[in-house]
């Protein structure tokens, strides 16, 4: 059982890593697209946020697919759609085509994630759920932040060649997924979804996935542009996000174990408090080195409540009798709202009020969330 679980976690981590790699690949390419197509910050935000829009549309359907036909089939389908989306990105030559390809990537991502996370959750012992989810999410973080380095290398090697290779890799992973043993079947309780949506703990878990997605959406749009304004090239921007990703990847399994032992909300409070400070400092950062350092710190602070938030969703879905695939599908939709809103909001506010405004809004959202969690945390877990 343990050996099989380890093999499953490794495979799912590879799939999630590959999927997340494409999410972050756009980051160092944004300044180039802004210059090449003459985009405003809001228009650049639309391009970055297209991934989240696709994820929003696909979140619940992906979860329903994973719940009805099993996590394995959802993963296979998601990877095949990812292959098609990567081919479209390779061939895109206009902002609309690029946005459409990113939209399709987001659509595929939610199906893959719903299946992959449900697969691990169903097979994992409950007392180790946070630890295993932390391992998987650590791979996702590494993919998302290695994505900028991948994007920078793709720019050097050629977008078409690089994303054609991604297409081939996605097809290979789909074939490998099809050969894996299917997850144990779940027996969902009738009326489980309304019960979960009435559960304060489940709703808290959804928000704790939407909020960091929004934070990273703001960071991924504004920090590359700020670094580029100081003369940083795509490879330098990618290196900053690489360091942030390596640090965050190492921290996530620890956060998962901590949430298993001390409760889901203990690491969440710490991460929220750190995020209040980091977002405020980003609003005041004026030098390239300070932006770079804060991006690395933000990777840990903003990402610090993803893993315990996912574990909270899984716990409360189980308590409500909700199939894990559907639970994670709903969670993906919540994440997508943040991933889509963050860049759009950041671009609109930065164009009208300056870059400090969206960061200060992020700090305020984290402070408000920390206040609610501190006042009603026990109710979330006991709901």
Task: Report the count of strand segments.
Answer: 0
The named CATH superfamily? MFS general substrate transporter like domains
N-to-C order of helices and strands: HHHHHHHHHHHHHHH
- Count of individual domains: 1
| Form type | globular
Estimated share of beta-strand residues = under 5%
- Report how far the terminal alpha carbons are from each other: 32 Å
Overall radius of gyration: 19 Å
What is the CATH C-level name? Mainly Alpha
Compute the number of helices. 15
In CATH terms, what is the architecture? Answer: Up-down Bundle
Give the low-pLDDT segments.
none
Approximate helicity band: over 70%
Structural class: mainly alpha
Quick structural gist:
The protein contains 15 helices and no strands. The protein has 383 residues and is an all-alpha fold.
Write out key terms for the chains shown.
mainly alpha; globular; 383 residues; 87% helix; Growth Hormone, Chain: A
Task: Characterise the protein shown here.
The chain has 383 residues and is mostly helical. It has a single domain, classed as MFS general substrate transporter like domains (Growth Hormone, Chain: A, Up-down Bundle). It is built from 15 helices and no strands. The longest helix has 30 residues, at 200-229.
